[in-house]
Amino acid sequence: MEYENHSWIWDGVCYYPHVFGGIMITAALLGLSTSYFGGIGVHYLPYMCPGFGILKKRAHEKKRVRVYMDGCFDLMHYGHANALRQAKALGDELVVGVVSDEEIMANKGPPVLSMEERLALVGGLKWVDEVIPNAPYEITEQFMKTLFKEYKIDYIIHGDDPCLLPDGTDAYALAKKAGRYKQIKRTEGVSSTDIVGRILLTGRDQSAHKDSDDLTLHEESCGVKQVTKIKQPTVGHLSHFLPTSRRIVQFSNGKGPGPNARVVYIDGAFDLFHAGHVEILRAARQLGDFLLVGIYTDQTVSEIRGPGYPLMNLHERSLSVLGCRYVDEIIMGSPWEVTADMVTTFNICLVVHGTISEANPLINGDADPYVVPKSMGIFRVIESPQNITTSSVAQRIITNHEIYKKRNLKKVQSEKKYYEEKTYVSGD
Q1: In the CATH scheme, what architecture does the domain 66-184 have?
Q2: Which residues pair with residue 159 across a beta bridge?
Q3: Which of 80, 72, 130, 74 shows the shortest CA–CA distance to 99?
Q4: How far apart are CA 225 and CA 220, in angstroms?
Q5: Is the CB of residue 134 less than 8 Å from the CB of residue 104?
Q6: Where are the domains of the chain?
Q7: C-alpha R_g of the chain
Q8: CATH T-level assignment (fold) for domain 251-390
Q9: What are 36-82's pLDDT values in tens digits?
Q10: How far, in Å, CA of 136 to CA of 156, rounded?
Q11: Cytidyltransferase-like domain: from which residue to which, for each copy (predicted)?
Q12: Domains 66-184 and 251-390 alike in fold
């Protein structure tokens, strides 16, 4: 019993022989008997060395590495998500700074999404542990000290593409100088600039589709050599994304539902992934144990939305949805109608649909895709937490197209330079 009561002493001998030996020598010099430490009066030793009793515990505790990455995250896409995934892989905890509206305006031009919307998108990612709102665009010395001292950040992360301030200097120069900077690989084929360009083209496509007399103007503004009258909806825009099976695996949870799990199913286009998508997925996930998301094919989206849609192709939209922390699994290219076979195959217990959705002008109003789950009594309409839609976000850009056109001209030049000077960067 005596050994059990004071086992921390023997742990100290085992794990810290030099420390314990020093204490014994000190005790001997003071004329104390070593038998004193064998059990007689041993309760006084913790007071002599109050930190000694936790030495073993501390030795076995590995310090958690905290990494920081910031960004505007305006028109957030799978490239942003992949950057944060890579950043999280460099540490144990990922803290993300979301740049303020004022800072974006000063350095890049007007943001499309509000701070609230951008915070919802970043906070909804499965790799993010903490979010700092209204972060500065530049890593100043004062802010860097705040990151290191208050947020206990070990490393500051950014992609291999340069981030320059208006005066041409590197926004991360101080972090690099301090030796606390790490670099990740930029995701190929997508950027917010690219997405703004797609939206502007879609606006022109729609105008051309409504009035064939505008086709000549459309030709001049888009730089297209030959434009013919649009008879059928066009499907999306050219994407430079290079999808790989490995990327999908990296985004996937890799786990299926348990045998008794309550599987909830929700479907949609999930084009131009926005805060409204995040919130409806959160609401759906709360209704069960496993959230399965069906993502319509590009052709289906084009048929229900019209010319120029989807803005993002199926692979791009799938990665955006998979990056959401509330999503467990997806069906890439799910059918428009929820069939009985689908319900059985995936053991779906509940099919849900939000109150806010895009209008479907090309679909017969009598064609209800949820006839089967309704007949089975497993269909439910849930209140959409936000009234944002892909069209409403796109309209913000189309309405102010001159502003965003000028903003994009500058960004396109910098991105062109990046790709011209691009070299291989290891990473995933």
Answers
A1: 3-Layer(aba) Sandwich (3.40)
A2: 184
A3: 72
A4: 9
A5: no
A6: 66-184, 251-390
A7: 29
A8: Rossmann fold (3.40.50)
A9: 444 444 444 444 455 545 545 555 578 899 999 999 999 899 999 99
A10: 14
A11: 68-197, 265-358
A12: yes
